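Title: Prediction job returns without error message
Component: structure pipeline
Severity: low
Priority: P3
Assignee: unassigned

Description:
Job completed but the reporter wants confirmation the result is attached to the right record. Sequence as submitted:
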Amino acid sequence: MNINKLVAIGLFAIFSFGVNLDVFAQGQQGVTIDKIIARVDNHYILNSELEEMYASYKASGQKAPEKCEILESLIINKMLLAKAEIDSVTVEDKEVDNELDGKMGYMIQRFGSEKNIVEAYGKSIENLKTELRNQVKEQKIVEKMQRTITGNVKITPSDVRKFFNSIPKDSLPYIPAEVEIGHIVRVGQVTREQKDKLVQQLNDLKSRAEKGEDFAMLAQIYSEDLGSAKLGGDLGFAQRGKMLPEFEGAALALKPGEMSSIIESQYGYHLIKLIETRGAEYHARHILLRPDYNKGTDMTDALKKLDSLRNMITTDTLSFAQAARENSEDKETSEAGGLLQDRNTGMGRLALDASMDPSLYFAIDTMKVGSVSKPISFRTEDGRSAMRIIWYKSKTEPHTASIREDYEKLSQIVINNKRNKALEEWFKKAQGDVYISVEPEFKNCKILDMASGEDS
């Protein structure tokens, strides 16, 4: 049983978020009779989940796994969730919200605007995010639980050589063209008009709260931090040093019950109310308003900065890697010198095919290897308007796999094999810790090597 593969099938729903949202929205248009088809402790699997995941694979153009395999992957993910509860493995709401914001940013980029999404699905952005948030949270917990189980797995160069030498020479895989690409991102500045508008709105809400309106109710109605808004803006207890410095500084300057002035952060503008402090922890609520990045962004400074950096890079005054580390506002890539990674494998080479981000594919299509592009308009994952310059670092032509050119890829296969073995051993033990049942109609599926319909 390839546990890594089955977990990956379960994670497909998040990695193919755009397709998944299409299928989700289509499912809302008609009323269907749903039913529970499996249970793992207090987690249930609905027939609609199975059908939506199967439809997502079909819509993505990938070969869909058998439905039995999809069901098994769903059960495995629910096992990871159940054991995460038992072992107290959790993820922070902020991490979930950032992931969801990023995926929604991709959808905005794909549809052109939030208005187009609302018109397509007949739901507000807030409602769509609320309905999909639990799914994102579950998948983040599954990923964290999987990392917890396989965190101690290590490999050596001799492991990789041994694996490569075990492959018959006439069976070595053919590797398609791959590229290394870096980028430097600069985000547009919120216009003064937009900033003044948001500050005024928050000051109005502050005034209403000072006059006796409930801060928590105002947060529920107006805050654009969806994770905390439904809790009245409640962020729970936070340890010092965990929140954004500007947010934490403002919160800790307050006395319990006091409200802050309006605070600006990378996420927008905040009105903070301190509830209490407890040793090295503090408890606060906030109301967050975000800028309209489509209408309220000035790209002048971003364009000037990138033009200047490109000039220094192309005249060898500054290396691209150093420029990225010191200037890129994409924190995910800046520490790696701006180099992009394949999110599914974590490797630095990107396949030069239809799986590549179209904006990257068409950008490098007219570039020479080693060149740096002029500033190009860009949308960050959380929906902000930005610009970037792209470095076409290298291209590897299609070839038969070799240990010299494909060591990174081969090592990934080896470590995945070891992780799969660790997961299989974990699952054998974990099955005795959770209750599992599958409906009789799936009796022909061999779920976790047990007869369907039997309790475990």
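Comment from assignee: result matches the submitted record. The longest helix spans residues 125-150.
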